[in-house]
Amino acid sequence: MTYNDNGRRPRTGAGSLGGSSRPHAPGQRLQVPGQGTYHGPRGTRQRPKPARRSSGAGYPLRARTINFQSGKARRISNNRRVLILGALAIVLLVLVVVGISSCVSSCSSKPESNENPVDARVAGGIPEDLTQEFATKLDQGEKLAEIAANADAYENQALLELALSQPTAIDFVAAYPEAEKTAQPYGEEATKGTVPELYCWDARWGNVDYAGEPLALTGSGPTSLAMAYVSLTGNTDRTAADIAALVEGAELATGDFLMSGTFLTDHVGELGLTCSTYTSNTDNLLQILDTGTYLLMEAPAGTLTDEAHWVIVVTEGADGSVTVYDPTSPSVSAHPWDPSTIAGMSETIYALSAVESDSE
Q: Which DSSP state fits 144?
C-alpha cells in the first residue's frame, strides 16, 4: 500500500511498517517499540529510552514516610509516654525527700554537748582553762577593732600605741574615751609581806592625769612605790593615784623617769616608810634583798624596755636569780632575771622598809 504525505506524493520506498506485510485489522493501532531503531521522514534513528513519567499532573513524586497508625493508636502511645514521665518524676521526688530527711536526721543527731558551755565561740570539748585563754584573746581582738574604729577620739596617740604593744592594756584603752578621769579605791584585800603585781594602766588609777598625761603612760614611779607600800604596811588606803598626787605636790614628777629619786629619800615618810640608798652592784643588791626589804630602781631606756621607767625588785630566788615587777611590762615581770643584769642597769639602789612603830 502506498503512503502519501501532505503533498499527496507517493513516498519512495514506502512499504509495510514493522517489517510485516500483514495488514492491520480495522481500528487496531500499531505498537511502536519502546527502544531500538525507527524509520522516519528523515531517515533511520536510534530511539531513546522513554523517560519516567510522573504520576500526577506534571509534579514529580517525592519519598514520604507514611504513618499507618490510627488516631487511637497515637493517643495510646502519647498516654504511655505521659505515664512514664510521671513515674520518673515521682521517683525523683521520692529521692529528694529521702535525701532531705537523711540530712535533717544527721544534723539533728549531733550531740548538744558539742557547744562549749563556757564560750560558744570556742569549740566544745576544749578544757575550761584553754577556753578562757581563747575567750580573752577573742575579746581583745574585738576591743582592738573598736579602738581602731574610734582612734580619732584619742588626743594622746601614745594610748593607741599602748593598746598595740600591751594586750593587757587593750580593755583600759578601749574604755578610756568615756571613762571618768578620777581614781577608784584599791578594792582588794592585801597581805603584809606579799607584793601585789600592779600595772600603770589599771582602771582604778590609769585614767588620772600625772605629769601632764594619763597615769597609764607616765606612772611607773608611783605604781612601783604603791606595790612596796601595800606589801610593807599591809594597807590599801594609798593607791598609785594617791602617791602620784603626793609626787606632783612635791613638784618631783620630773626627769626622764617622771619621778625624782629625791621623793623617795625625802618624802616617803608620809607613807610610813623609810628609804636608804646604795651604790648599785650585784653584791649590794643581793645583800639588801636578804634583809627582807624591797628595792626601787630606775630602768633607763633600752635596758628592760624602750622607755625609761621605774621597777621594783621584790625577792631573790633559790638559784640566785631575782624577781622584778615592771609596772609597764608584763613580759618583764613574767620571768626571773640575773642579778648582775638588774644591778648593771642603774647607778643607785633605793631600799624601802616600813617605819617601826612603838607597838612592834
A: H
Contact yes or no for 159/170 (Cβ under 8 A)? no
User: What is the residue whose three cell numbers read 531513546?
Assistant: 48
> Is residue 237 a contact partner of residue 226, using CB atoms and an 8 Å limit?
no
Residue 141, all three cell numbers = 581582738
Q: Are 115 and 131 in contact (CB under 8 A)?
A: no
Closest by CA to 342, choosing from 292, 306, 290, 300, is 300
200-252 pLDDT, tens digit each = 999 999 999 999 999 999 999 999 999 999 999 999 999 999 999 999 999 99
| Residues 6+ away with beta carbon under 8 Å from 99 | none
Query: Distance (Å, rounded) from C-alpha 138 to C-alpha 76?
Result: 71
Q: Which of 227, 207, 203 is nearest to 215 (CA)?
A: 207
Q: Please state whether 145 falls in left (phi above 0), alpha (psi between -120 and 50) or beta.
A: alpha
171's grid cell:
580593755
The sign of the dihedral angle between the CA atoms of 232, 233, 238, 244 is negative
DSSP for 87-124 reads HHHHHHHHHHHHHHHHHHHHHHTS-GGGB-SS-TTSBT
Q: Which residue has the cell 620630773?
A: 254
What H or E segment, with its residue span, contains residue 136?
Answer: helix 128-149
Nearest to 116 by CA among 126, 107, 108, 106: 126
Global model pTM greater than 0.70: no
* Closest C-alpha among 38, 40, 39, 62 to residue 50: 38
- Residue whose C-alpha is closest to residue 158's, from 328, 287, 347: 328
Which backbone phi and psi does 128 adopt, to 5 degrees?
-60, -40
Phi-psi label, residue 19: left if phi above 0, alpha if psi -120 to 50, beta otherwise: left
* 37-90 residue pLDDT tens: 555 555 555 555 555 554 445 545 555 555 555 555 666 667 777 778 878 888
